[in-house]
Specification:
about 260 residues; Rossmann fold; six-stranded mixed beta sheet; binds adenosine-5'-triphosphate
Length: about 260
C-alpha cells in the first residue's frame, strides 16, 4: 500500500492555478523528487500535502487516513514532517532547544516546562534531551548543541532543520530545496544525509530540488511539474531521456550534467 496518495490535487490563488489536477503516489521507504522550473507549483503542492493549504480539489491519503483538510499540526502528529525552502529555525534558541521543539507533539510535558526544567517533568525531559542529542549526532552537529541556531553556518542550519523534522519520529519527511545555497562539498554531505535518513532510519523522503546532480543520483522516482501540471513521471532514466523534460525543464546543460 502506498504511504502517501495525493489524487487530482488542484490549488488556485485568485485566477492562478498553482497546482493543476496533480496525482502523486509515494511508496514506503522510497526517495522521490518533485522537480520543475521556478513557479511550477512544487512548494504549493508540498503546502497542500502538509496541511498549510487546503486543496480546492482532490484528496490526500497518508498512512491509510484521509487527511484532506487536516491542520498541519495534526498531519505532523500522524508522521509527516517537512523542512522549508527558507530556513525556519528559532534563531535565538539553542540547537538542542530547536530539536526539543520539534518533539513537542510527542511529549506530554509542554515545551516550556522542558526548556525551563519544570520539576515534575524531569524524567521526560531527560529522555527528550537524550533523544535530541542522538538526532544531533545523526546529522553531525552534536558538538554545537549549546550554540544559538542563528550562529550556525548555513549547511549546519539545514542539518538542524532535518534533526528537528526527525524529532517526531516521522514516517515521511518532505525536504524543500535542502541544498539551496550550499557549496558542492556541503551538497555532497547533504546528499549522504538524505540517503541515510532512508537507509538507516527507514524514513521515506520527498524532495523538491533544483540540483539535478543530486536529484538524479538519489531519486527512485521523479515527478515533473510545469505551470502547476504534472508533465512527466518515472525513474531517473525515463526522466533523463524524456525530450519534453530535457527541453523544457532541465535544459541542454543540465541534461548533460545529469548524464
Ligand atoms: N500564497 C500565494 N498566493 C498567491 N500566489 C501564490 C502563492 N503561493 C504561490 N503562488 C504562486 O503559485 C505559483 C507556484 O508557486 P510555487 O512557489 O508553488 O512554485 P515552485 O515550483 O515551488 O517555485 P520555486 O522553484 O521558485 O520555489 C507561482 O506562480 C506563485 O507565484
Amino acid at each position: 500500500m502506498a504511504l502517501l496518495e495525493a489524487t487530482n490535487i488542484t490549488k488556485i490563488f485568485g485566477g492562478l492555478v498553482a497546482v493543476n489536477d496533480v496525482t502523486f503516489t509515494v511508496e514506503p521507504g522510497s526517495i522521490v523528487s518533485v522537480i520543475g522550473p521556478n513557479g511550477a507549483g512544487k512548494t504549493t503542492f508540498f503546502n497542500v500535502l502538509t496541511g498549510i493549504y487546503k486543496p480546492d480539489k482532490g484528496r490526500v491519503v497518508f498512512a491509510g487516513q484521509d487527511i484532506t483538510g487536516w491542520r498541519s499540526d495534526q498531519i505532523a502528529a500522524l508522521g509527516m514532517r517537512r523542512t522549508f525552502q527558507n530556513i525556519r529555525l528559532f534563531g535565538n534558541m539553542t540547537v538542542l532547544e530547536n530539536v526539543l521543539i520539534g518533539m513537542h507533539v510527542h511529549l506530554h510535558a509542554s515545551i516550556w516546562s522542558i526548556i525551563f526544567r519544570g520539576r515534575t517533568m524531569v524524567r521526560e525531559e531527560a529522555k527528550a534531551r537524550n533523544k535530541a542529542l542522538e538526532l544531533l549526532s545523526f546529522v553531525g552537529i552534536a558538538d554545537k548543541r549549546d550554540e544559538l541556531a542563528k550562529n550556525l553556518p548555513y549547511g549546519d542550519q539545514r542539518r538542524l532543520e532535518i534533526a528537528r523534522a526527525m524529532a517526531g519520529d516521522p514516517k515521511i519527511i518532505l525536504l524543500d530545496e535542502p541544498t539551496a545555497g550550499m557549496n558542492p562539498h556541503e551538497t555532497a554531505e547533504a546528499t549522504q544525509l538524505i540517503r541515510r535518513l532512508r537507509d538507516e532510519r527507514g524514513i521515506t523522503v520527498i524532495l523538491i530540488e533544483h540540483d539535478m546532480r543530486l536529484v538524479m543520483s538519489i531519486s527512485e522516482r521523479i515527478s515533473v511539474l510545469d505551470y502547476g501540471s504534472k508533465i512527466a513521471e518515472g525513474d531517473v532514466q525515463a526522466i533523463r531521456t524524456n525530450p519534453r523534460v530535457i527541453e523544457a525543464y532541465l535544459g541542454k546543460g543540465a541534461a548533460g550534467q545529469a548524464a
